[in-house]
Design goal:
Structural class: alpha/beta
Helix content: 25-40%
Bound molecules: guanosine-5'-triphosphate, magnesium ion
Number of helices: 9
Order of helices and strands: HHEHEHEHEEHHEHEH
Distance between the termini: 35 Å
Shape: globular
Mean pLDDT: 88
Number of strands: 7
CATH architecture: 3-Layer(aba) Sandwich
CATH topology: Rossmann fold
Radius of gyration: 18 Å
Number of domains: 1
CATH class: Alpha Beta
Low-confidence stretches: 10-37
């Protein structure tokens, strides 16, 4: 029995309605079920949502305390599907893992494709499949870190499920959310999905190598991001060519040594 979250760490399949990488369905879906149209129904939905977020925040606090005790710098990469999160991680690990010790948690609804890509860099990785769930939560991270050597870890990088909405609401106990936006998505995304950019410390504007082929307005995009989060730090990068990555590496390395 896990004394922090109250779950059994050995036989999740029988006791849980949430999902790690065990293939069962995640109860957080109740947050998104708006089938109750009556006033009392709405109250029920809101109460469930508060309960879920309250439990998540408690477990995120537990994660944060562990990360602090072990001196691990933890980042939560959030974005829409395909913005280049895994490609950014691959390049970052290939270029920095000889200097700093990393571990990675990969979140996807299905497949371990991304974990395989990370494993090829030689960095320890754990894949979490959320099934129908659209985001990682603190409980998944709590158990997802169990097999890592936390005493000898500088940086934990978490790649969340590709989704610009739900991951914004869930604290995993990370130090910072890092929003990845690729230039193929349109410069208005920070205005359309403000919570994600409001809650992120960093915006990595990725795929800048494609700019010559697009109408994407970089300055307008940066202005939109600052409109929802005046303090957001923006790095323009290409995970493919490596352009602009040095500034990101410096910020990451400084965070690990803080
Ligand atoms: N041109 C270009 N392509 C890129 C860049 N970064 C990633 N890609 C491509 O974009 C596609 C998606 O990249 P991924 O790294 O798998 O994206 P992701 O955000 O991890 O995707 P999900 O995990 O499915 O959400 C791949 O075809 C990459 O090769 C970049 O900087 N420039
Ligand atoms: Mg990925």
């Amino acid at each position: 029995m896990c004394t922090t979250c109250g779950c059994s760490t050995t036989d999740h399949d029988h006791h849980h309605d949430h999902n790690h990488d065990h293939g069962h369905t995640h109860s957080h879906d109740s947050k998104h079920s708006h089938q109750h149209e009556t006033e009392s129904g709405k109250r029920t939905t809101i109460a469930i949502e508060e309960d879920i977020l309250g439990k998540n925040n408690r477990l995120a606090g537990f994660n944060r305390a562990i990360f602090k005790e072990k001196g691990i710098f933890v980042l939560n990469l959030v974005s829409s599907p395909g913005s280049g999160k895994t490609t950014l991680l691959e390049r970052t690990l290939n270029e920095l893992s000889h200097k700093l010790s990393f571990a990675v948690i990969e979140g996807d609804q299905q497949t371990d494709n991304d974990a395989q890509r990370i494993a090829a860099t030689g960095v320890p990785v754990r894949q979490i499949n959320t099934g129908t769930g659209c985001h990682l939560d603190a409980h998944m991270i709590m158990h997802g870190t169990e097999e890592f050597d936390l005493d000898n870890l500088d940086i934990l990088l978490i790649e969340n499920v590709g989704n610009l909405v739900c991951p914004a609401a869930f604290d995993l106990g990370e130090h910072h959310k890092v929003a990845v936006l690729s230039v193929t998505e349109g410069e208005d995304k920070p205005l359309k999905y403000p919570q994600m950019f409001h809650n992120s410390t960093i915006m990595l504007l990725n795929k800048t190598d494609l700019l010559p082929h697009l109408d994407f307005d970089v300055e307008k995009c940066k202005e939109y991001a600052r409109r929802v989060n005046p303090g957001i730090i923006i790095f323009e990068v290409s995970a493919k060519s490596g352009e602009g990555m040095q500034a990101w590496y410096q910020w990451l390395s400084a965070g690990a040594k803080r």
